Amino acid sequence: MSYKFISTGFIFLLIYSCSFSQEYSYTHYDIKEGLAGSTAYCITQDNDGFLWIGTETGVSRFDGIHFKNFSGSDGLPDAEILQIFADSRGRIWMAPFSNSVCYYYKGKIHNQDNDSILKKIGLRGVVGGFAEDKYGTILIRQRTKFLLLKTNDEIIEYTSINNSPINSCLASSRSASGNFLVEEAQNVYEFADGHFTQVATAKMNPYNNDVYIDLTPTLMVCRESFSIATITSLQTGKKFNLPFSNIHISNSIIDDSLVCINQSDGTTEFNIRDISNPKKFLPGVSVTKTFKDNEGNKWFTTMGQGIFKLNSDDFKNITLTIPGFGNISVYSIKKINNELLLGLNNDRVCKIKLPLYRNKSYFRISAVETNENIVFIDILKNGNPILGSTMKMINASPDFRKKEYLDSMSLKGAYRKNDSELLVATSWNVFAVNPYNLHILDTIWRGRATTIYLKNDTTYVGTLNGLYIVTKEKKIIDLGEKIPFLQKRIAGLVESNDGSLWIATYNSGVIRYKDNKILSVITTEQGLTSNICRNIFIDKHFLWVGTDKGLNKIDINDKDYPVTFYTSHDGLNSDLINVVYAAGNTIYVGTPAGLSFFDETTVFLKSTCKLVLMDMINAGEHFPLDTTNFELHYNRNNIRFEYAGISYKSIGKISYRYRLIGLDSSWKYTDQNFLDYPTLPSGNYQLQLLAINKFGIVSKPILIGFSVATPFWKSNWFYLLVIAVCVVFVWMLMSWRIKSVRQKEKEKEKIRKKIIEMEYMALRAQMNPHFIFNCLNSIQQYIFDKDIFAANKYISRFARLIRTTLQNSSRTLISISDEVEYLSTYLELEKLRFKDQMNYAIEIDGLLEKDDFFIPTMILQPYIENSIRHGIRHKTDSEGYIQIKMSLDEKNVLICIIEDNGIGRKKSMTYKTKEHIEYQSKGMSLTADRIKLMNAAYGNEIKIQIIDLENQHNEPTGTRIILEFPVYELLFQNETL
Questions:
Q1: Number of domains forming the structure of the chain
Q2: Do 866 and 920 meet the contact criterion of CB atoms below 8 Å apart?
Q3: What CATH number does residue 675 fall under?
Q4: How do residues 114-134 score in pLDDT, each as one tens digit?
Q5: Considering 710, 738, 771, which residue would you say is the last residue of a domain?
Q6: Model's pTM, two decimal places?
Q7: Full residue range of the structural domain in which residue 670 is found
Q8: What does the pLDDT look like over 909-966, one tens digit per residue?
Q9: Distance between CA atoms of 961 and 963, rounded to whole angstroms?
């Protein structure tokens, strides 16, 4: 037997005798998730990170969350796409089942009907593949020729290689040096500068089927025979033989070392660095292609079942099976040296040898079959395992052959106080138990408990109704009385190095309790996959929290408590977490589907996050995505941004951080893949947008600058115009106002001047020529009578009156005391002139301060004179009398009353001569005009009332004149005195 067959047989033996106990989890996408068709032929990834899948009913673009499908209505020449390729310029080339070619670029599918360059391409059959060289030239391969589409849109067709016609060109690729590789007639050529150089031989049997060969810059895999495939390194020439089968569909070289043989019962992956340890994916599924994206995720296109994503190679899953029981759930985990003990359901314990996880041993705990779950495992100093189930506690020998039981104990949780005492929480009580002989030492709590923890001689008891503590003196304290939040159902308790107690609740997340108060609460709002926490484990500064929707890792050293979560989409065999256990860097997770484990220091190190702008829409108009610094009309000041964060390992768990500078400088968060700004004020803006995947990896930012036009009524020139108009208007208004004020001042000045003129006129009128004449006659008579003393007295008083009159004429106001003195002098002269035929009296109210109150100068004298001349002069029956009274009323108004006992106004009219009438009318009208001018000038009102006095027989008995003066302000007095 040849070496070749021995080698092949050995490989077969390795492959098919291998335990394939390693199981994988997948995320499945089909029509119901949005994929265009269930049968997928090809897959690629573009520069933005989008996956493009060619199916039997169209093309799908996938961002990890949403599918965007393209069909004939979008420009595809045919719905069934067999080949797809992404070039460096962002074009997605597609080869339909029909004899045609097309590509997608910037939102449009270019085909041979709408693209002038593609229209020049002549095709003889179905396109078999695409390639691109370092210059950006695109190679379009067919069986009997290939075409080169250069960057200058020149098309070159090759139908021969080194003068030999091309009959069966089955593969093409880029070469390691950046040129083209093409296979023809089982020879591989490098094509550069129009020359073909053979670089390898592709031996295939049978030949003439392109599914039997795949070509990359570094590797070539081809079917050498019905049972053997050969991997050839194009750099070293080294070859590796692989087993092959007739259920083969295609080959896929997914990187420099991994080759996948796609078959109708799954895919087998070979690593040329360890050819003896293949991996089997999707057993029983017909796989058409295998693809590896830029995060390292593996994707599988299938016949009739859509596409699958391998959740992670980093997660290892072991399904535990017992004949007659099916799959077994894991409820507790303990690592001892190089063995892993698992507590299962159906009263079983599993022991697995490390590190290969292949040798598994099962042990039944009870003497008879039960359906108990082993929820607690620990190891005593003597090496015996101590176990707790939903029915009893067990102390077993290391080989599980000898067992001691403590029955009727439905264990819910346990805590090792020390080697000789174990605290056990059950459905009925909390006990202290000796783990060696299983004797109950003490009863700590009477009632149902869910978990237990001991801290500083204080026992914390979790129950369905909250958290209690039992002191060393066995005093029970309900923590929920003072802290209602601690009335929640408690699922687990652990303590961190700072003394904080971390409490897992069954419906309210995780609570941090310290110093008799709650310091933090971590829920789904902070990133937990669920608020139903089933268990909790602490390792270093990480909390591991198992929920009904996945496993959560919380960094408690970070004050923000960032949460990283793992679910079945990442590789766990179930989202329902029964138990979590950390041993070094390995995290073990027990679920209803078995055991999952992974190295938490290396998992998802290749995760990336990209952010792609998908659309910008303004008033229904779509902006080109490369548009920058654009302007929106002020009447269409709305904009919508659509984007996609791409991180396939995050399985759609991507958040976005954004802010619009110019509107708000604070960062905001959203899970939506769009932003709407319906009404933006005028101004300049910059959108800053970031994507953050579930592992906290942040994408490069998208920065979009734009502006909203300013309406003309808000523009600077309009503001300047308005300001100018306002300035002119204000100037005109101020000018008018100033002019008006000046005019009023002029009018007031005229009034004042008129008052002065009237005062002088009144003065002249008041100085009655007849009075002066009569006074001079009286003086003359005194001289004739040689009554020198009387004449001198009269002349002296007359001179004083004239001097006082001249002095007062320059004053606007005069005090009451000065006015009384002036009037007394005047009346005294009149009394002398009438030979004591008249008398007078001046009465001043005692409450009236004569020096503090003022009246207009020489306003009373004309009325007194009028009373003497026309009232008292013609009185013959008795002595004439004039009474003057001054007082303040309750309204603080000065009242001046001049009353005489003369003949009255009616009778006095019969004595007046024409001259007298003219004079008297002139004097009284001047006084009235003077009062009107003063009222207008000073805004105060002087009121005058004249009353004719009569007796009971209606005979006149005199005249009363009442004058009301306002109290003039002292400031005005000082300015005018």
A1: 2
A2: yes
A3: 2.60.40.10
A4: 999 999 998 888 999 999 999
A5: 710
A6: 0.68
A7: 610-710
A8: 877 654 444 444 455 666 777 787 777 766 678 889 999 888 888 888 899 999 998 8
A9: 7
